Amino acid sequence: MKTVVKAVGVSKYFANVNALDNVDFEVTEGELFGVIGPDGAGKTTLFRLINTLLVPDEGSVTVLGLDSVYEYRKIRPLLGYMPGRFSLYQDLTVEENLNFFASVFGTTIESNYELIKPIYRQLEPFKTRLAGALSGGMKQKLALSCALIHKPRILLLDEPTTGVDAVSRKEFWEMLKVLKQEGITIIVSTPYMDEAKLCERVALIQDGKILQIDSPESIVEGFKKPLLGIKAKSTYQLLQALKAYPKTNSAQPFGEYVHYTEKNRTPDQDELRDFLKKQGVYDVQVVSVKPTIEDRFMELMDPQNEEENNA
Amino acid sequence: MNSFSGFVVKEFKQIYRDKRTLIVLFGMPVIMMILFGFAIRNEINNAKIGILDRAKDEASQAIIHKLEASDSFEISAYLKSYDEVEALFRQGEVKEVVVFESEFRKKLVKQGQANVQVLTDATDPNLANLVQSYTANIIQDYAETLHEGKHLETAGISPDIRMMYNPELKSVNLFVPGLIAVILMLVSALMTSISITREKEMGNMEILLVSPLKPYHIIIGKVLPYLVLSVVNVITILILAKFVFQVPFEGSYLLFFAESGLFILTALALGVFISSASENQQTAMMISLAGLLLPTVLLSGFIFPVSSMPDVLQFVSHIIPAKWFLVIVRSIMLKGSDFLLIWKETLILVMMTVLLIALSIRKFKVRLQ
């Protein structure tokens, strides 16, 4: 497998903030690579280092064998970039936007129509509408079409599904799978943990550091402790009670359940129930749950857990 | 369609689509011309004055008659005593009171000298000055008719003033070149800087930078539509000036348009330079308005003559492109000068433009940082 993006020891500082701290990673050709992390983790900075809009303060970024600092002119046309913010012209129509990006990249809609067809087909009924008047999901589709119009080797999508409804998000990921089949390497970032499992490999990023890079399955497997899902009448009361419980290792709200791990390897469910009852928590249900990437992410974020796991 | 022409087409479309801005851009020269041409005038028309005639003789009556006959004045009050003067001024009824001393004619004939007191309301000093000098002219005019046929010695010395090139001191003749400068600054520099920073602010620049568009493609593409707009504006002002305000045009149109083209380039380069120094539209607008428009209006000689400014401001005025453009346009329009007379000013503008373009290209960032 050929490496298309390679970062070695990359650090980036803004004033006093260390936006990226000694980051290493590789993306191989044709891969769907996810960058997962909360807001402010450094995802956008990472993308801008790959697309040569920023220069690393330390380390180096190589894209398709080209250095991001000295050979940025050669790199740029090979990339399709979709910034986190909707960056198309709101006062131009759907078709005009697409035409504009096609002409800027020295191509036409017709010559690359096959590639964008699955996406653009849904937009075509609105092609005379101003881009500013489109819905969030439609805007994302248009932005993706514009980023794809020149048949890039690598597609950089910075939080494409942020602020988009659930249905459009699902559609968007399906489109990415189709594009992957065309042989385009896709690097996509998202703050949504549930989207991580749709990638082939993900990098978990937090405070400018990459916590782990692996396939979603392997990342979940790294979560060794038995995980319990606890539900009660009042989640708030339940959380307070769990925090007071001396054996609690972690308690994180996940929807209507609280994901819970104990300091002991095997949690004593009866003792826990008794404690909760004494604390006045009612309607307690305890089930065993499968860990998700988010559980692992939370675990990785707390360095104490890591030590214990390794021990 | 290559990337550059694609970009230019996009720019024209965006400008064309923004109808409100478009109306302002094309309407502004017309409105400004009408405002400056009709409302803001340095010449006076029917200024109200009061007369206190203590002599009531042939000479004083003749002068009063002359004042009344001129278009500049309208006598709105005849006073009976000096005490009324202050009250009249306080009411704001009159701009000036002319007082003739008693036995005016007798003194004039016997002593060859008689006094007329001219009191003006100097709350508006410009107007007071004008009213005063107009009155002085009329009185002097009368004095000259008296002295006709007499010996030279008794006639005394009376200056013969003639205003060359703009004999009626028509302010519109002065304002037109200034207006061209202001409007070109506004359209070229302000609009260009806003249009470039808008791309930055909206995040479009991020995509443009990673595209194969070269920095000069982006800059020229941004500048071109405003160049066209500016030329249209110059033509509009010229037509209005010629056919509505009968401003003379003595020189060559070709030279005028060439010099205007040069000044448009200077302004566009300034706009690009401002945009490279500002991150958002608001900053660009503030810099353009405070840093360009105000000096262009106040320090270029458009309204206040450069020669009467303090030394520091005179020095500052040298770095204002509009100052040099004003000299050029006034020479061409009113004096009919040819290139040989204005080559120095032209050279200064050329140098300014080249410097600004060089600086802008140097400052243009191919990255976000």
Q: How does this structure look, described?
A:
The complex is a heterodimer of chains A (311) and B (369). With 311 residues, chain A is α/β, with parallel strands linked by helices. Chain A has two domains: 218 residues, P-loop containing nucleotide triphosphate hydrolases (Rossmann fold); 63 residues, Alpha-Beta Plaits. Chain A is built from eleven helices and 14 strands. In chain A, strand 4 and strand 5 form a beta hairpin. In chain A, helix 3 runs parallel beside helix 5 and helix 4 runs antiparallel to helix 5. Chain B is an alpha/beta fold and 369 residues long. Chain B folds into two domains: 223 residues, no CATH class; 109 residues, abc type-2 transporter like domain (abc type-2 transporter like fold), CATH 3.40.1710. Chain B contains 15 helices and four strands. In chain B, helix 1 packs across helix 10, helix 8 runs antiparallel to helix 10 and helix 8 runs antiparallel to helix 14. Chain B is elongated and about 90 Å long. Chain B starts with a helix and ends in a 6-residue tail after the last helix. About 2% of the residues of chain B have low confidence. Chains A and B meet through helix 3 of A and helix 1 and helix 9 of B.
